[in-house]
Amino acid sequence: MKQVYLDNAATTPVRLEVEVAMRPYFCEKYGNPSGVYQMSSENRGMIENVREQIAKTLNASAEEIYFTSGGTESDNWAIKAAAQMLKEKGRHIITSKIEHHAILNSCAYLEKQGFEVTYLDVDEWGSIRLDILEKAIRKDTILISVMYANNEVGTIQKIAQIGKIAEKNDILFHTDAVQAYGQLLIDVKKENIDLLSASAHKFNGPKGVGFLYIRKKIPLPEYIHGGKQERNHRAGTENVPGIAGMGKAAEIAFTTREYREKEIQQLRDYLIRRLQRGIPYCRLNGSLTNRLPGNCNISFQFIEGNELLLLLDEKNICASAASACSTGDTSPSHVLTAMGIPEKLARGTLRLTIGYQNTQEEIDYTVQCIKEAVEKLRENAEDYRRYKETFPCNIM
Ligand code: PLP
Predict the structure, then answer these.
(1) Which of 181, 193, 261, 267 has the least CB density, counted as fewest CB within 10 Å?
(2) Which pLDDT tens digit goes with each residue over 313-343?
(3) Given 27, 282, 318, 325, which residue is catalytic?
(4) CA 21 to CA 179: how far, in whole Å?
(5) Is 325 known to be catalytic?
(6) In the predicted model, what is the mean pLDDT of residues 48-53?
């Protein structure tokens, strides 16, 4: 079997059409968009077309879209600049325990600057409880940042309701939509979203480019200082090929979204069914219904997820134990811990994320390899033998 890539939450392959759209901007149309000559103004035109096009996918307007280097930069900008802008009004921020480290570490930085951060608990499915969010709001709360969908377990949050709560309390609302944009329909107006981060490499675009949506009425200060690019808000020569590629990737993601969602979801449900039926002592993590279409996050008791990954790598299967950013980290995932998954079980976790390019044949091959690998790892597990003798049926 050729390589089976099931790590589409970490990054996605660039579509051929996207690569074709980017190509001219390397060696032919390489002009700096800030130049005065024709090649530059054409590139400026392309950038503005992509801005317009991305805005449409969110029900936003073009002047509300700012290009960045990706999700991490957009998250840093949103959180730190919002705190800076509103520090006279208050110094309390609400986020969740299951956010990406781009948010968690930005909040940790702000804590050192004298801000207070409440990290909301989640339930066993990875969902934030709205009553707990409402209770966490204080007079000095200036920002709520809750991710649209989680990168590890795929749980989709009740963003429209959170937006309503934020609006009712006159609090700025940011959502990290890096995993959701291109997969789910997002309407920033209906969902009362003030700030939204996205990244092209999660929807079959290139790496190192993304955007931050900033609602028009919000005077969010600039984050990177320098030239006048991005209407004085984000200095630095634009990533012209990257923006061209992101535009094409967004176009394809939205024109094919419905049918892709259906196909990917069917494949994901097939994968989950086969794993649950074929391998005892396993547990699906995350919500069954409010879940990203391609996400399967499953824990196998009595094994180490990192050992499983190595055996799968020998079979040419690319998967991950948690998020790509925590690879090499031996502590259990902060997301699974927040969901109350016991540490031992969390350590045996595998994240498989399906993309448009995956096939049923690949899933069948992967399930067979996982089955063999889990059996092999359990052969040496003393606690597995003891457990099986005491509880011979598959209850978890
Ligand atoms: N936020 C979430 C939810 C993510 O999954 C990621 C990437 O894994 C990021 C932010 C960071 O995005 P980027 O890789 O574009 O910096």
Answers:
(1) 261
(2) 999 999 998 755 555 566 889 999 999 999 9
(3) 325
(4) 23
(5) yes
(6) 98
